[in-house]
Design a protein that fits this description.
The complex is a heterodimer of chains A (about 625) and B (about 400).
Chain A: H1 2-32, H2 39-56, H3 59-84, H4 96-116, E1 132-135, E2 138-141, H5 142-164, H6 166-176, H7 178-183, H8 188-208, H9 220-235, H10 240-260, H11 268-279, H12 308-322, H13 330-355, H14 364-381, H15 385-407, H16 412-432, H17 434-437, E3 443-444, H18 450-453, H19 455-477, H20 480-490, H21 492-497, H22 502-528, E4 530-531, H23 538-551, H24 558-576, H25 580-594, H26 599-614, H27 620-629
Antiparallel strand pairs in A: 1-2, 3-4
Helix pairs in contact in A: 1-5, 1-6, 1-8, 1-9, 1-10, 2-3, 2-4, 2-8, 2-9, 3-8, 4-23, 4-25, 5-6, 9-10, 9-11, 11-16, 13-19, 13-22, 13-23, 13-24, 14-15, 14-16, 14-22, 15-16, 15-22, 19-22, 20-22, 23-24, 24-25
Chain B: H1 2-26, E1 31-38, H2 44-63, E2 71-78, H3 83-96, E3 101-104, H4 108-121, E4 125-127, E5 144-146, H5 151-162, E6 169-173, H6 178-194, E7 199-204, H7 213-222, E8 227-230, H8 235-247, E9 254-261, H9 263-266, E10 278-281, H10 290-303, H11 309-328, H12 333-340, E11 344-345, E12 352-353, E13 365-373, E14 376-385, H13 394-400
Parallel strand pairs in B: 1-2, 1-3, 3-4, 4-5, 6-7, 6-8, 8-9, 9-10
Antiparallel strand pairs in B: 10-13, 11-12, 13-14
Helix pairs in contact in B: 2-11, 3-4, 5-6, 7-8, 11-12
Classes of the chains: A mainly alpha (about 625), B alpha/beta (about 400).
């Protein structure tokens, strides 16, 4: 019995650490709607700075002072980031801020290794909390007890802050309806900055408090960020109490789950999230989102099919690209094939995101399913390559049909997180089902047949399929189905009123996107000759998001450019420099600032404006109204 | 619009390639190139000393006149910890740098991915660090050789000591991926053969890099084992040790632990190093052989730092590659394979041989016990165990390894 009590307390201590970080994320998201990917980076920075300070200043005062100062220092960095970077892009398309914080995260990962060195750092134990307390023969570390107390204390302080101060009232108001708060004359700039600072402070504090238990290292950020997001979503976005309850729920389920299924930890949080979101679409304590006042896909220049001249230009470019094998060597052709495959992958997500208004955080699942489909067909059934390429993506289709059915019942970030949960579940199946999938050692020897084996042939194959995929998706965009999908995106109520079955339309779009992603995965399996669980991992999903956002989410085919730029750049940088993450991250941040609507989106807006000013007869009234509606 | 960018992107790529290709042609005659791939950005704690190790080897080889008169050049690429990126790098090295062979890799799945690439493209590949048994056995191929003692070998070394323990109730804690799974499986199998009286009372499988150490320690203690097998390393190991120390998990229990004696993993533990663990590792401070002394002196004078196991692996990988290239007198893969099969060479750990039967080198490892000295963890009672003594019989390997 004593054991279960101690296990429960151990779970509570884990929950407290998780809650500190999660609460910060929840506050930031609630008010600013920023999906702060850099939250883990701030957590990690907190730990590193605290390590330096506590090593420098010994004693109880040095330790606790060091922890608090570290959190303040990192919060100051957070303020700087918010003022210099994020303020510029609050009016960018939804999720665009994710791109900026993603770039920051990449940079921080390389910077901490440059500053603090590559070794794992083990900090001091907390003065006064070094030992353990005996509980009926079981030991409870006193530091765990400290954390167990700290969690509710922080919760209480935050509650008082939000309920009893004017600032807290404003924050709560902004969480509910930030447009209305702005309309009432509240200075949003400083409200956002202060909220961001508080969130970052909590993240850094959470990181700093880990040093007596953990090893400070450069991978801490990724370890925590996804889990924290999951906790926030399970609890309900913007709900601090929800985050606390979710942290306890997840930690306790893990603490007791491993007694029965020792391998459960790898997937537990995602299972919990999937179940919670299917049963309660807005998390445990979340409220349904108010209907969006601004339409997310509203563009200054409405979409239109390419003109005849543009079509000719596109064909010309395709011909130039197809001539590459006559001038380039094998390596460049293989890179070209890889880029073409990622174009397919990115346009499939782009279709879902920009046309359907459904941002998926787990799109790699269908890419990976396509790849595994091919690998299993080729290795187990021994089917020829053409058949594998045709049938493999069907696994992506089936996956998308099953998961999409549940996912389209939700919207916004809840939709995104449910897709992430499904992707992680698929990933863990590939990872754990060693007898079929080979586990993380993957499936090897999936090489193309002779007719496609040479780099030039494979390049032509990939390029052809990529062109086909882009054309087909464009045709769908401008078909009646595409219009219905956009109607559902822009106004669910109106589209329902004119008789569009929104959920079915979205589900169909999800299946189309998943199948096209599966096709990309199928090609990828043949390009690499092997398949690994990596092919459906979170980092691949994030890459796809980055490509779409980089190209411009409000465009018809911006993802094509986003994929080419991002993939070519990352391959080139990894090959040329040891600090590829720092440079790539810096580049992403620069693009975010220079092209606040994505590369293609910003250029289109620019050209549109120029065309407008040259033919000044067009109504300036209309333009200004639409821009202010943004 | 879109077309313009496609064109621009391709143009940039072509230009980048062209400059790369030009610089490689100019010096191709007097050089011999080796392509090297490792997870530099993902695992700097291991790969930085590794890089220093191979750079030292390159320097020594060129100072001694290169390979058959040609200067040795190592072109190094980062794989970011992703098998797919490792293949891109391998492809660049082979297709556009025209390297004579590929070396390196750390993670097992990356080692396997590059090994499969080597097999497909008919390129010689000397795997440095991946521990998986599959790379030389179940998924072995004729183009792939491996330097480091495999999972099986390290398990066999530890089992020799572990079987002497009186403990009958064993628990295991291992990271939940192929390395952890196969380490536990081999250890269990070899241990149960020697000691049929042993009971396996608990197993814990925390996700790699994400251990929630408190509950894991508590759950292991609840099974009340007499001895524990640990396979976690890096940050997970630190957390496990800290929680285990505070909660008294290791009190009165013997722990057998893979790799923990390697400075990479032992040094961060500082004064929290648990004493008396039976480990494999690299006690650079207590190896007194002329070969190792020479290496140690050269390393310390070049870098003003002590070597980690990664340094040895990096150093010996390039030394082995150079020895194979010198013996083959050619960069033809078939001749390299012929030269590598059965080749013997010196190493800081004494003479090693690349076996013909499974392309595994006989480089061994040190076993010993952990201890605390001046607030730092060290290995004591160390013994070098030759790799050749801890491999299964040829008949068994014939069964494990696919025919070429």
């Amino acid at each position: 019995m004593a054991f279960y009590v101690v296990q429960f307390l151990t779970g509570l201590a884990s929950a407290a650490s998780l809650f500190l970080v999660a609460s910060g994320l929840s506050i930031i998201f609630g008010v600013t709607r920023i999906v702060n990917f850099a939250h883990g980076a701030f957590y990690m920075l907190g730990a590193y700075v605290a390590f330096t300070l506590t090593e420098r200043f010994s004693g109880a005062f040095g330790f606790w002072g060091g922890i608090v100062v570290a959190a303040l220092v990192v919060a100051a960095i957070g303020v700087l980031v918010e003022m210099v970077l994020l303020r510029r892009i609050y009016h960018s398309p939804e999720l665009f801020q994710l791109l900026a914080t993603f770039g920051l995260t990449l940079m921080v990962e390389d910077l901490v290794v440059l500053i603090w060195g590559p070794d794992d750092l083990v900090g001091r134990r907390a003065p006064g909390f070094k030992g353990a307390i005996d509980f009926f023969g079981q030991n409870i570390p006193s530091y765990d007890l400290f954390l167990i107390v700290l969690g509710p204390v922080v919760l209480g302080v935050l509650w008082l802050l939000f309920q009893r101060t004017r600032w807290g009232v404003l924050v709560r108001a902004a969480t509910q309806d930030r447009d209305m708060v702005a309309a009432l004359g509240v200075n949003q700039k400083w409200l956002f900055t202060s909220v961001f600072a508080l969130g970052v402070f909590l993240a850094a504090l959470g990181g700093a408090l880990q040093i007596p238990r953990d090893a400070v290292n450069h991978a801490m950020d990724l370890r925590v960020i996804v889990e924290v997001f999951v906790v926030v979503v399970i609890g309900g976005l913007g709900s601090i109490i929800g985050a606390f309850v979710a942290a306890v729920l997840v930690s306790e389920l893990n603490a007791f789950g491993i007694l029965i299924f020792p391998k459960i930890s790898i997937i537990l949080v995602f299972l919990v999230m999937a179940v919670v979101l299917i049963v309660r679409p807005w998390g445990l304590f979340g409220k349904p989102e108010a209907p969006a006042r601004r339409t997310p896909g509203l563009t200054v220049n409405p979409w239109r099919p390419l003109t005849a001249n543009e079509r000719l230009a596109a064909i010309a470019v395709l011909i130039v690209a197809a001539a590459l094998p006559f001038v380039a060597g094998n390596y460049l052709l293989t890179v070209g094939s890889e880029i073409a495959i990622f174009v397919i992958f990115a346009v499939s997500l782009h279709f879902l995101m920009s046309v359907g208004g459904l941002a998926s955080f787990g799109h790699a699942a269908y890419f990976g399913l396509g790849a595994y489909g091919v690998a299993l067909l080729a290795k187990m059934a021994g089917l020829p390559m053409i058949v594998c390429l045709l049938l493999g993506p069907l696994l992506g289709l089936v996956g998308a049909a099953v998961f999409g059915f549940f996912a389209v019942q939700l919207s916004g970030v809840y939709f995104a997180m449910l897709t992430l949960a499904f992707a992680q579940i698929v990933w863990s199946i590939a990872f754990q089902w060693v007898s079929v999938t080979g586990g993380d050692n993957g499936i090897l020897g999936v090489w193309p047949e002779k007719w496609a084996a040479s780099p030039s042939h494979f390049y032509w194959l990939s390029l052809g399929i990529a062109a086909l995929a882009v054309v087909i998706l464009r045709i769908i965009v401008f078909s009646p189905f595409g219009f219905a999908l956009r109607a559902t995106r822009d106004s669910p109520l109106r589209s329902e009123a004119v008789g569009i079955n929104g959920k079915r339309i979205q589900w169909t779009a999800f299946v189309i996107a998943g199948t096209v992603a599966g096709l990309a995965g199928a090609l990828f399996a043949y390009l690499k000759g092997s398949v690994f669980p990596d092919n459906m991992g979170i980092s691949l999903s994030v890459d796809a998001l980055v490509m779409v956002l980089l190209g411009g989410v409000e465009t018809v085919s911006g993802a094509v450019v986003g994929a080419i730029v991002y993939k070519a750049l990352s391959i080139w940088l990894v090959s040329q420099t040891d600090l590829s993450k720092l440079v790539l991250g810096g580049f992403v941040v620069l693009i975010v600032v220079a092209f606040p609507k994505g590369i293609v989106g910003t250029l289109e807006a620019f050209m549109h404006r120029r065309r407008k000013s040259s033919s000044s007869a067009s109504s300036p009234l209309l333009t200004s109204r639409i821009e202010s509606a943004e | 619009m879109r077309g313009y960018f496609v064109g621009a992107g391709l143009a940039i790529a072509v230009a980048a390639m062209a400059t790369g290709a030009m610089s490689t042609q100019a010096t191709a005659q007097s050089e011999i190139k080796i392509g090297e791939i490792n997870s530099y950005s993902l695992l700097p704690a291991f790969t930085e000393p590794y890089r220093k190790g191979w750079q030292l080897a390159v320097e020594e080889i060129n100072a001694a006149g290169g390979i058959n008169g040609k200067k040795l050049v190592v072109i190094s690429k980062d794989d970011g910890g992703k098998p797919a990126d490792a293949q891109t790098a391998a492809n660049e090295l082979v297709s556009s740098e025209n390297v004579a062979m590929l070396t390196g890799t750390f993670l097992s799945n990356i080692g396997l991915a590059v090994s499969d690439f080597a097999n497909q493209k008919k390129v010689f590949f000397l795997a440095a660090e991946p521990l998986t048994d599959a790379i030389t056995w179940s998924k072995g191929n004729r183009y792939t050789f491996r330097l480091r003692p495999s999972n099986y070998m390290q398990a066999a070394m530890l089992v020799e000591e572990a079987a002497k323990l009186p403990a009958k109730r064993w628990a295991t804690i291992a990271p939940n991926y192929e390395y952890g799974q196969s380490a536990v499986a081999v250890f269990k199998k070899l241990m149960s053969e020697k000691r049929p009286d042993i009971q396996w009372v608990d197993e814990q499988w925390p996700p790699q890099g994400k251990i929630d150490a408190g509950p894991v320690v508590q759950a292991t203690a609840a099974a009340n084992p007499e001895a524990i097998l640990n396979v976690t390393f890096g940050a997970d190991l630190v957390k496990l040790v800290r929680e285990g120390n505070t909660r008294g998990l290791f009190k009165g229990r013997t722990v057998v632990s893979f790799l923990t004696g390697e400075p990479e993993y032992l040094d961060p533990l500082k004064d929290e190093t648990p004493e008396g663990w039976i480990v494999t590792g690299y006690p650079w401070y207590s190896i007194k052989t002329p070969e190792h002394d020479a290496f140690l002196k050269a390393y310390q004078s070049k870098y003003n730092d002590y070597p980690r196991l990664g340094s040895i692996v990096g150093y010996q990988t390039i030394k082995a590659a150079a020895a194979i290239l010198a013996k083959a007198g050619s960069s033809d893969p078939e001749k390299l394979i012929a030269a590598a099969e059965g080749i013997s060479m010196p190493s800081p750990f004494g003479e090693i041989t690349f076996r013909k039967i499974d392309h595994q080198s006989t480089l061994g490892a040190f076993t010993g016990k952990t201890a605390l000295k001046d607030g730092k963890g060290i290995m004591v009672d160390t013994a070098y165990r030759k790799g050749s003594d801890y491999l299964p019989s040829d008949a068994e390997i014939e069964k494990l390894r696919p025919k070429d």
